[in-house]
Amino acid sequence: MRSGQKVNTKRARNRIRPVRIYGRPLKRASQGHRAYRALRRPAFVLPTRLSTFMSDLLSVPAIVPATSPLSRRGFFGRLGVGAAAVAFIAGCDDEDPDPTPGAVVLDFSNDFGVLNYAYALEQLEYAFYQQVTLGGYFLGLAAASEERMILQDLRDHELAHVDFFEAALGTNAIDALEVDFSAIDFDDRTSVLTTARTFEDLGVSAYNGAGRYFSNTDTGRTFLTIAGKIVSVEARHAAAIRDLLAPGTTAFAGDDVVDETTGLDVIARPPEVLNAQNAGAFIVTPVEITGLPT
Amino acid sequence: MNPSFDQIASGVIRQVLPRRQALRRMGQYGAGAVLATLPILRISNTALARSSQSIGGGDIVDVLNFALTLEYLEESFYRQGLAAAGLDIPSADRDVFIQIRDHELDHVNTLRATITALSGTPVTLTDDAFDFTGGDGTAEGPYDPFNDYPTFMALAQGFEDTGVRAYKGQAPNLQSNLDVLDAALQIHSVEARHASQVRRMRGQQGWIPSNSSGGLPPEFDAIYAGEGNTTQGGVDVTSISDVATEEITESFDEPLTMDAVLGIVDPFIIG
């Protein structure tokens, strides 16, 4: 089962809404926190700074600015591919073993695989913002408040992205992912906005880090352009959320995400993006990566 | 396999890029007007045919010098604005513009170093290369950004939104050097953060609705032309999504060609 598996294009739609947590359909927002009860809670607290996503356990470089001492590649600080909680299928050939049943496979040697990676992250973001708009914090905001309108727009934008990828990928689309937001308190401003900031910065880093995997063909360049069209919107989102959290400061493009020397934004490769300290903290469905250049 | 940036910078591997002849139709420049205004760009004036390799067109160094030109423009604009005695920038806003200015300077330095590492010659532009009244060197253009804060902010928004579209348009031309592509994407997203912030400081949304400039003068229309596009990769997103059309247009930023960008910034670059 690869990223080219046949899927019912409607199925992913139906499975994204409502969000399923371990098979339990989401109930009304009035059920509050109970709706997000999971069978298992993550044992760690969500880090709020991408630059602190260090995994001692996994020895995976964190998403760091290019000139951090942690970046050993000098100027552009290309992150190495390391072991990760996300399973690797080494190599990219006919000898690959069957993936874990129920796993989603992202094949980066294939342009559709790269798009599916983006699709996966958009699914995560949309599912999050959808829950936000059903949560106590959002619903308590005045209808005309900028904050509410921003969160509503973010939800709509991510849905547009999800819908687009589902349509563009067609039979190549991965299944809908199961997500776990039990660590998030959707009634709490700080929890919602810091998670939003994490997702947006993560999305920026992921798209920035994925551009290189598109092939040097007309299709690859079309997909690269599409990814480009989306990443700048994610960066606009990130800046807005960061500004909501720290208004009128440099947080919109802070030194924690934009390197002070190079002026380069965060960048991360798929294993880091999907590991247990990043997107993997929220994705229940096993995600397997293959086809990354060595 | 692309050599790593370290290898390029150390000269271990000389990056020999095919001298791709960029597709430049002279007619697009209006009798060479842009060549006259931008002598610093090495625009090929021969051989419009693309080789089978140069599908994206545009030598990488040319692309980077184009980006560098825009970064010089932005850096000069913000630095001069912050230093302008006649410009009353509120203190919280000053912090924002200082951060933006610092990033643009970083981008200038990053691009210069990259071009040099690729054995190219980076352009060098000083403040006297620019006319921020928008008067193409007359100093009598329609704008007074260093004495009027709303004008300063409007031009800032215009430059940032243009920069996003400029980088986006060039990304496919950088596929032959993946480290450079990485860096270009990492600058592109920073410009988008800038744009979002400046737009919201001006009371706009951080993202672009339809092809609207949000009430700016007609000269700004070109910056937003095409942003109302709802067909992505052959998919009419309005037909496959319940999201409202305006939000769909906000969800995707559109590229601009190098020519279109040069046309937009032409009034601000002297020569």
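The CA atoms of residues 273 and 279 of chain A lie 6 Å apart.
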